[in-house]
Predict the structure.
Amino acid sequence: MMDKAAGALLPALMEQAGAGAARLLLERGPELGLGEQARVVVLAGPGNNGGDGYVMARHLATARRDVTVVSAGEPRTELAKAARQAWSGAVIPLASFQPDSLLHAEGIVVDALFGAGFKGDLPSAPAAFLQGFKHRMALDMPSGVDGLSGDCAPGVAPCQLTAAFGRLRPGQLLLPGKAVCGVVKAVPMTMPPESIQAMEDAFPAAILRTPTEPVPAEAEGLLRFFHNAPGLWRLPLQTPLDNKYTRGVVSVIGGGVMSGAGRLSLMGARRSGCGLARVAVQAQSAMIYILGAAGAIIDELTPSVTLQTLLEDKRRHTWVCGPGLTSSEVMASFPVLLAAKRQVVADAGTLDWAAGAPEKLRGAAVITPHAGEFARVFNTPRMLGLLKRNRPLAALEAARLTGAVCVLKGSDSVVAAPDGRVAINTHASDGLATAGSGDVLSGVVGTCLAVGMAPWEAACAAVWLHGQAGQAASAREGGWPLAEDVAAELGRARGLATTLQQAG
Ligand SMILES: NC(=O)C1=CN([C@@H]2O[C@H](COP(=O)(O)OP(=O)(O)OC[C@H]3O[C@@H](n4cnc5c(N)ncnc54)[C@H](OP(=O)(O)O)[C@@H]3O)[C@@H](O)[C@H]2O)[C@@H](O)CC1
Ligand SMILES: Nc1ncnc2c1ncn2[C@@H]1O[C@H](COP(=O)(O)OP(=O)(O)O)[C@@H](O)[C@H]1O
């Protein structure tokens, strides 16, 4: 329940939301192809989203715009009732409003039907009403989109513009919701930090904290969303006292058959700034690694030099296990690394090895599945359902089942920690959808762990660095980089991250 102090803030927040949304429409209207004379129809629902709509209508009328309010249900909350009262214009019931074809083509409908409180199925009459217009703007969320996951109910009307109130919501950044929000523009709102928790409790969909926003002690262990950016984590800076060991040692288990993946992981680790990268590989497959990376150390595994022997070196604390590995190679290495209490990034082959058995991953520091790998490991109906409809909760549940930080990769990667922190990454590029790009990422996670970052922060930093490198490589390669091109940009990405994190 929301406390009294936070409750008292709500009318002011609704006023700011509605006024800000009106300002946004006035500013962005021309870009949407709307003239000054364009009619605005606000479709107001029964909750506070509808309340925002009434406030917006009042501000548009004050700005002398032609605005009509259509009601899809009497206001049910005190706030919405007050907003309705303060609107002095007519309110036309949905059933009796007859828009003409000119309005459909030239006017804009403001979708204030449902926002964060939507659940279940979208009622067909208001959904069809919204669909009828050429131009649409949403308040908070297009109606029918889940604010937490971005899941869309059938019949959602895509908008060109969405007003985000104070903070972004996960559903505005995650597919498929992201695709129907159009351009998401933040309406600034004065929201005291201590009330954020109460707002989250009061409204059914989460908001995204900015990197520097404090999480109160009572929120520890609860689901909390963050937008991934420098400042949420801090990469160590270079100092004159550094040596290669202080910058971190990353060891990669090299595959004998598919050596390319291990080599790309090695490249990711080295390019993102680890001091020393090594590969442990069966002697008969070592040459490709030796020839491929002059600055890396290749440890040839023989009957007399085993993985156990290598683990006697305590500086080799961080391992990447999975890229390019067969199940038998994973079986011979992953349990050994865990038994030696090493920090392990479990990717690719290790995830395949744990198909249907997530408990096999317990002990890993970070797991990095893409959707296919996720579905193989976590193959219960509940987890498959979450994967389809709620990626943040899917990643969180995976983190809790394995005890590891879970990076659920995709165009909107999600990084979840067992303690409830979930970061959503939007800093990436479509150019990353190329074979080997995930292998590069596993090495970057290794570097961030090896330098002493905690697993969630390390994973978030790695995903951001990888995304930044992907953007830069895409720009350099006309949109079509190779995984190697992405790796080549990681040093500059780290330089940029350390500059930005100072500002954050
Ligand atoms: N966060 C903030 O700080 C601020 C948030 N603000 C605003 O508050 C909004 C959230 O308001 P909200 O909680 O009242 O929910 P809202 O989206 O209006 O819907 C609830 C109503 O819809 C109904 N309903 C739901 N689904 C339905 C369905 N399928 N079919 C039919 N009916 C359905 C539901 O019915 P019930 O479940 O109660 O039967 C209830 O009546 C948020 O999006 C933002 O715009 C701002 O004012 C300022 C600050
Ligand atoms: N459209 C996209 N936009 C942003 N990032 C993407 C996109 N497609 C893939 N990625 C990223 O690229 C990487 C691909 O990893 P993965 O599928 O494991 O590739 P591979 O196994 O070939 O190395 C992941 O980090 C993922 O988040």
User: Anything to note?
Assistant: The CA atoms of residues 233 and 457 lie 5 Å apart. The pocket of adenosine-5'-diphosphate (ligand 2) is lined by residues 348, 370, 409-411, 413, 428-430, 432-433, 435-439, 441, 466 (CB under 6 Å).
